[in-house]
Amino acid sequence: MELIQEHPDIAAYLAADEAIDHEHPAVRETVAALTREGDDAYTYARTAFEYVRDTIPHSADSGDPRVTWRASDVLTTRNGICYAKSIALTALLRARAIPAGLCYQRLTDDDGTNPGVHGLVALRPPGHERWARVDPRGNKPGVDAQFSLGAERLAWAVREEIGEVDYPALHATPPAKVLHALRNARDRAELWRNLPTQL
């Protein structure tokens, strides 16, 4: 999928902000733990992806009621939904000077009902001319997302025939709808009732 940068300047996809707080000690400590001597950007990016995908449970799978939205909180509590896990991976990548941003899909049930917006990450390691989307949501039966800079290996492929959408925008910061839902939910049950249905 061809992504459209929200900001033309690649520096926007390396910046820290309140949610993608990659200068926070918790993020820096995680980066240090994931970094191996001699690793290139590709190897580190894959390690960071697998760390977020495999060691931070999606709260819908684990049943954790807490809602996280800052990368540092996701890494500290080891908890988050797809939006939060995507923010955490973006922070881990930017901390190693790998451009990364947030992108989204609109997914539904098999009959086209119950739409919801699903969060992904796009990255562009040095030497790569195109953005590549990855999905750190977390695998489970029926979901097998893998790290790939070539053919996409996301958790779900959109089904346009039932109204699902791949949004082409590449966001440097979490969209207002996403951040509002995360920041204002007292727990995951409340968050689930107020998730964005479209961007």
TrEMBL record:
InterPro entries linked to this entry: Papain-like_cys_pep_sf, Transglutaminase-like
Residue ranges of domain Transglutaminase-like in the record: 30-136
Pfam families linked to this entry? Transglut_core
**From the record, what ranges are coiled-coil?**
none
Out of the domains of life, which is the source? Answer: Bacteria
**Protein name according to UniProt:** Transglutaminase family protein
The uppermost taxa in this organism's lineage are: Bacteria, Bacillati, Actinomycetota, Actinomycetes, Kitasatosporales
